[in-house]
Amino acid sequence: MGKETGFLELDRQDRTYADPKERLTHYKEFVIPHAEPALKAQASRCMNCGIPYCHNGCPVNNIIPDWNHLVYEGDWQNALEVLHSTNNFPEFTGRICPAPCEASCTLNIVDQPVTIKSIECAIVDKGWENGWIHPQVPAKRTGKSVAVVGSGPAGMAAAQQLARAGHSVTVFEKNDRAGGLLRYGIPDFKMEKHLINRRLVQMEAEGVSFRTSTEVGVHVSIESLKENFDAIVLSGGAEDPRRLEIPGAELPGVRLAMEFLTQQNKRVAGDDELRAAPRGTLTATGKHVIVIGGGDTGSDCVGTSNRQGAASVTQLEIMPKPPEKENKQLTWPDWPLKLRTSSSHEEGVERDWSVLTKRVIGENDVTGLECVRVEWVDGRMQEVAGSEFVLKADLILLAMGFVGPRKQGLLDQAGVELDGRGNVAANVIDYRTSDPQIFACGDMRRGQSLVVWAIREGRQAARAVDEALMGASELPR
What is the mean pLDDT of residues 382-409? Predict the structure, then answer.
């Protein structure tokens, strides 16, 4: 597997970034990929470790050692085939996945994991460049029809797999373009949207129909879908944001991260301001911005704010600052809790941890944010006496995560059972809800999670639907 002594001879060398001063002037991707010889060299580091923990670390169970070896040998086309056998959209995960596979790599024990994510991205990019990726049109049609509600990564994966099984698939999307949070939640500087568009073209050639600007539960009823389709897949994501329940949070300068990010993504897509910002323009230009929430969405707000020309950006997190380095003996091969600094953080931000927000200051609009420091004792949060402080703020962006799928409209009409966290109740064996005609997958079923988990669930749900409709399925699980 790879070169037997590759991991002994070569250190990890990952992709690099364009200089922050240059990349802050635009919204294009700024990762500088390796040249082919360097990619082959990095792939050669994949050691014959006996038990490839990277298989389990990857939610879609990518067959990583196999395509690493094929890249090392220069057999890119077969590497692409192996990669696509488990992942419908590796150009998405190769850009925005946090790479739990690398955390599980045996070489991560010594902080030198194989550059799996970079190699994955290079394989699929080379596939598109060389015209190796084509629509996979089924040889015959089943006569069965499936409605997929939501066109994010879970819905896209489910729809593509079901179409390839020969079913007639219609995807319903409430927004004006397909892609879900891939399109409107992730900034273009992390993933440009032409990557989604070319996959949609491929899926349409495979027989998938897209009905955008059509919200199920508003423009089309669930009852209508049940009458006109043999099965329904709910893949609408977890879109109900966690709110800031403190005095002053109702002021106009306190806004949801998704509204902020969506507006900018629409501008980048060429929409005029009326389409991009129907509720009024929301920008960070010249403002002191506070981002509440230390995750990926918060990081995306930081990068977008800096590109818009914010006067300052501060990111707050209620949890303690993670350690710089994990204890490998306790965590490997599991995903570790450690300090993660994104490319957006490197572009300029003040980060602070163990901070609880108490009150938004301002009369007609935001002027500041009152906070207090907290400490965690036996898992319980306690305010530190005398630690109150105030931050100057003109705009506060809420990036505190999501509490589950929206209930009004779609789920209220569907009447399916919910689990204890408010997600649609369905197991990972058959992905069936309490209504035998309705299936659920992705964040709508599992709660807020990663794109790679959504792709996995979409693929597995597609197999479950195919099996339910046909009695058996040849789709991979």
Answer: 97
